[in-house]
Amino acid sequence: MPTLFDPIQLGAIHAPNRVIMAPLTRGRSTRDHVPTEMMQTYYAQRAGAGLLISEATGISREGLGWPYAPGLWTDAQTNAWKPVTEAVHNAGGRIVAQLWHMGRVVHSSFLNGEPPVSASATQAPYKAHTYDGRQDYDVARPLEISEIPRLLADYAHAARNAIAAGFDGVQLHAANGYLIDQFLRNGSNLRDDHFGGSIDGRIRLLDEVVQTLIATVGADRVGVRLSPNGDSQGVDDSDPEPLFTAAAAMVDRHGIAFLELREPDENGTFGRTDVPRLSPAIRKVFKGPLILNSDYTLEAAQAALASGVADAISFGRPFISNPDLPERLAKGLPLAPDNQAQWYSQGPEGYIDYPTAA
Ligand SMILES: Cc1cc2nc3c(=O)[nH]c(=O)nc-3n(C[C@H](O)[C@H](O)[C@H](O)COP(=O)(O)O)c2cc1C
Predict the structure, then answer these.
(1) What is the pTM of this model?
(2) Among the residues of the chain, which ranges form H helices?
(3) Cα 84 to ligand 1 centroid, rounded to whole Å
(4) Catalytic residue among 178, 296, 351, 354
């Protein structure tokens, strides 16, 4: 029976342990979405993870609407990621880039006043993060079928840049109410063409993006993240189990390196839902490495591995405040709490100043 501290092969990536760092947006890049020097320190400090999944990283101007989040569509962004991946590798770690298109939750202020794109003409609830504070979302413009090849080219371009920047692979962000998720779920995908309607229609964009990424970097360097249970940013589905098991079976057929599920439950502290976790059903159809996430403690993580429902566990908030999280877990040391006020606060405070236990 594997434990968190046993190695695992994730496609082409050899992870020396099963404590994975979940993707965490931290807002420490420039206004042009160029990574900064402190990001080298931040990721290198956390290189003891079996695998680091980077913060969500924009694939295009159209797809990125988060202040000071990084991108991978310009040469300047790509070049500034190089010392980050190098620092991780020099510290003995591995890192994949999480590729992000936010779809309808890109505020129009990032787009010269143009509306964002989505599956359908819907408007996200709550308020957008912008450079001028929180603002209402705009009604999205449905993507035309004729635009899909250009969207796929944007994903391919960003994936090529990720490899050029020294990443060990990519993870497609298909979770949390962003573009791919907006296509997956019938609360936000109201299309009646072959990118909507049936489950086959709604998983088509995911399928085409995954195939594009595989053609660009190889299946053994492509991971996918899904959030199958419950509402994310107003994106939800009336019958999630058949939808997400079909999506998981499809990525399984493509032989991707790993699938990660973000699944809060009724006690969730980052999202809460009464929709049961779908990982047991997904486990039956996805045969590759399955990484589970949300609110895991050491005990719950070991139990998930022991029961066979997961192959590895990703930790988000614990990695913010415990750069040496795998070591602390292995030694049973207490974990330091994180400070939510500093999640996106730009400066080095609450970012690179959390000490190791030693
Ligand atoms: C500050 C912060 C930033 C996050 N950024 C991302 C992100 O960029 N991409 C993503 O897929 N999830 C993101 N998440 C969700 C986390 O990856 C993770 O699913 C969540 O924190 C639950 O895991 P945990 O209980 O181990 O923290 C973020 C969460 C937090 C707290």
Answers:
(1) 0.98
(2) 37-45, 75-90, 148-164, 179-184, 199-202, 204-217, 240-253, 279-285, 298-307, 317-321, 325-331
(3) 20
(4) 178
